[in-house]
Amino acid sequence: MGRKKRKTVRPRPRPRLPTLFECPICTDYSPTPTMTIDIDRRKGIAIINCPRCGFKQVRTIRKIDERVDIYSKLIDEVEAAREKGEPYPPAETSST
Ligand SMILES: [Zn+2]
After folding, report:
1. How many domains does the chain have?
2. How far is the CA of 27 from the centre of ligand 1 (A)?
3. Per-residue confidence band for 89, with pLDDT thresholds at 50, 70 and 90
């Protein structure tokens, strides 16, 4: 019983996070994931980009935010805007 069992611990293959997301803005027309989310942790920002509909947004993130967090936040905002009948992204109100 004093024998040590040697366990061969195999590193589990980590599930890769998808790099493409379904764009909530143009996904009605095409459910193909086209949206990319790039995280710049040094600047604390995330760059969301959908080449299909031309949506581009830079948003500040928290240190713990992952792509999925940013994505789900975006979904929430888009859905909230839709419920109100407002366009998303909201039209910029720059008074000059
Ligand atoms: Zn799009």
Report:
1. 1
2. 6
3. confident
